[in-house]
Amino acid sequence: MNLEYYNKYPDEHGKFGKFGGMFTPEVLMPAAEELEKAFNSLFYTDKFQKELNLLLKDYAGRPTPLYYAKRLSEKLKCKIYLKREDLLHGGAHKINNTLGQALLAKKMGKKRLIAETGAGQHGFATAIVGAFFGFPTEIYMGAEDVERQKYNVLRMKLLGAKIRTVTSGSQTLKDAINEALRDWITNVQTTYYLIGSVVGFHPYPLIVREFQRIIGKEIKKQILEKENKLPNAIFACIGGGSNAIGAFYDFIEDQSVDLYGVEAEGKKNDPNMTGASLNLGTNGVFHGAHIKVLQDKYGQIKTSYSVSAGLDYPGVGPEHCFLKEIKRLKTGMATDEEALSAFNLLSKTEGIIPALEPAHALAYLVKIADKFDKNDIVVLNLSGHGGKDLGIVQQFMGDL
Ligand SMILES: *Cc1c(COP(=O)(O)O)cnc(C)c1O
């Protein structure tokens, strides 16, 4: 069966089925349209591709290896390959997107970058490209997050970015989003708003997906070189969903390849302590798009929770909502404990300390590994390195 997916989504209204769209204040519509036009006319040109690919290669460190994890494969009794996004500059896949959007901003003649960040990982990746291109860069961050994420705040400041501490509401990511949008409305002529995942209103889910697709393109080429066939399954963690859609996208029409998106369950069986919006959320509007979101019965957005900061987002990108609805995407969850145990497993069997986000994807693979037999090929997208998480891991595991 041919899904005929690629030419259909998103449609001209930025919709993936009923998900996505542009639920923005009217004053932002011209800016969103300008962005869409600029992206469509620049991104697909040879010139842009050449420039971006050179940056991805020499500055960010692409292509990343697809590494056969032999000892882990023996333990889980299937053939596991790790896509090593953890080896990129900045320690995660986020640089694929921030480099791409900053190059776009430069071509559009914008003079300044703004972004919001929860845990600080996207703020850090934005501060890197702000310094690289010489853009004044301001990062909106909730006061509570500024307090919790001192190390990332320091890294952003060292790179020359200004931190705008947001003290309204819950003083976390959703309030930072509101403030960043307010800034964009005021300064839309000069300012580029750099969103960090496949979330927000159209055209962002499309733009970020296109910048992250390089992950799956490389996986396809590399696995065909190594195994001469496509994998049986690909696993990735989902916060907003950018590393996952990046890894999955070029396989969507290859229906023999199962796609597994893994969310943070957080504390076991506690609906108030979770980040799993695709699994546990309901339909609603958040960040300018119709998506699955964690909300209360009045439609107020709940504060999400996960041991891993990058999965601690109350919504999830519209394309994932749609892929789940049409049953092309399988979803799973892993708790804090399960992720920490997978973190331990990968560190000790492969000598690779993963970020806690992809440790969730590995944890879910561990849970369902007996679905696969020993010749089945499974690719796990290792979206980031664990250096940033050592403090939290130590809190949970105590002195080792
Ligand atoms: C931010 C982050 C994530 C979650 O974001 P997605 O958009 O879902 O990819 C996952 N892994 C790492 C290492 C991150 O830094």
Structural account:
This protein is α/β, with parallel strands linked by helices. The chain has 16 helices and 14 strands. The chain has helices spanning 29-42, 46-60, 70-76, 94-107, 121-133, 143-148, 150-158, 173-186, 204-212, 214-227, 242-248, 277-280, 318-325, 336-350, 356-368, 390-397; strands spanning 15-16, 19-20, 66-68, 79-84, 112-117, 137-142, 162-166, 191-193, 233-237, 258-266, 282-286, 289-293, 329-335, 377-382. A six-stranded mixed beta sheet has the order 3-4-14-9-10-13, sandwiched between helices. A four-stranded parallel beta sheet has the order 7-6-5-8, sandwiched between helices. Helix 2 (46-60) packs across helix 4, helix 4 (94-107) crosses helix 9 and helix 5 runs parallel beside helix 7 (150-158). The longest helix has 15 residues, at 46-60. The radius of gyration is 20 Å and the shape is globular. The termini are far apart. The site of pyridoxal-5'-phosphate has 19 residues, from helix 11 and helix 15. The site of pyridoxal-5'-phosphate (PLP) has 19 residues, from helix 11 and helix 15.
Q: What are the distinct ligands in this entry?
A: pyridoxal-5'-phosphate
Order of helices and strands: EEHHEHEHEHEHHEHEHHEHEHEEHEHHEH
The best one-word shape is: globular
Percent of residues in helical segments?
40-55%
Give the spatial strand order of the biggest sheet: 3-4-14-9-10-13
Number of strands: 14
- Computed over alpha carbons, the radius of gyration is 20 Å
Assembly category: single chain
Q: What is the number of helical segments per DSSP (H or I, 4+ residues)?
A: 16
| Class computed from helices, strands and strand pairing | alpha/beta
Mean pLDDT: 96
Which range does the strand content fall in?
15-25%
Q: Termini distance?
A: 52 Å
Largest sheet: 6 strands, mixed
Task: Detail the poorly predicted runs.
Answer: none
